[in-house]
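## Example record

The block below lists the input lines for one assembly entry, exactly as stored, with component labels intact.
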Amino acid sequence: MISWIFIIKFWVLSSSYSIPEIYSGVKIRMFARTSFKHAVVEGFQPLIHHRRYATAASLNQTEVAKFAAMADSWWDMEGPFKPLHAMNPARLTFIRSTLCRHFGKDPFSARPFEGLKFVDVGCGGGILSEPLARMGASVTGIDVVEKNITIARLHADLDPVASSIEYRCTTAENLVEEQIKFDAVIALEVIEHVSAPAEFCKSLSALTVSNGATVISTVNRSMRAYASTIVAAEYILQWLPKGTHQWSSFITPEELVLTLQRASISVEEMAGFDFDPLTGQWSITDDIGVQYIAFGIRNG
Ligand SMILES: C[S@@+](CC[C@H](N)C(=O)[O-])C[C@H]1O[C@@H](n2cnc3c(N)ncnc32)[C@H](O)[C@@H]1O
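Predicted structure tokens for the full assembly:
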């Protein structure tokens, strides 16, 4: 199994897809901040790929059924959500760094998000909501799968700090109708599971206060992502149930930036995730060829 990881890793690295390559001709600033590199995208001119998005509500019943079937496993560290648990430190590093800078908070403080209202859209069992609450944010976690919300509530209640999280079984669209707004709207690994990404992004935007932040992570529609997240993770290593991901639902960084731009969100920074098979740990990289995360600001 380890040899498979090395073969795939070698192939993935040998066909590296870094930010300057994709955004050639666009002003990109690379710089080191805290423990990793960010890419700042300035004056973005997207390479347009055509993709048909359904225009109805973002709910995709097939995807929802998949997550309902796995709901009991959210806090099983060796279960299907093991990769999300393993990625959490790297995703939180990016979130802490970008949001502290944006909101003028001290990234070295124990509770840097004190006083800020966050919504974790597609929160699942609360893997991300809980650490965000421990970092001081007032967190609302929403998910369309009722069982996910039940599991998230039960688990959060084990910790007095996390028990402050408000969990609700609802969609971003429904929350928009309630006219609730948040300082930061976070949707990690969700957009590739919705049926109308453009509509979904508009809802995320409508939930964000003016000059508030949006953070989205997803999977790039690249051959390397197909090899690593579907062939390797689902079929060879069997980290995830077969069929968890649909390659055609993956979104390229260019498409995400354009879609967010149309929803009045300007993407300011992006970073990729890199897996080290020796340590089993994920880290932040400037290679956004496979899994990546984007931070944007709601205009106006
Ligand atoms: C891959 S999981 C990600 C969970 C969590 N965001 C994380 O990264 O730890 C995707 C989650 O999105 C939820 N989901 C799918 N479609 C959704 C929608 N339209 N609105 C809200 N949640 C949705 C699923 O039920 C599932 O819990």
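The chain has ten helices and ten strands. The two ends are 50 Å apart (CA to CA).
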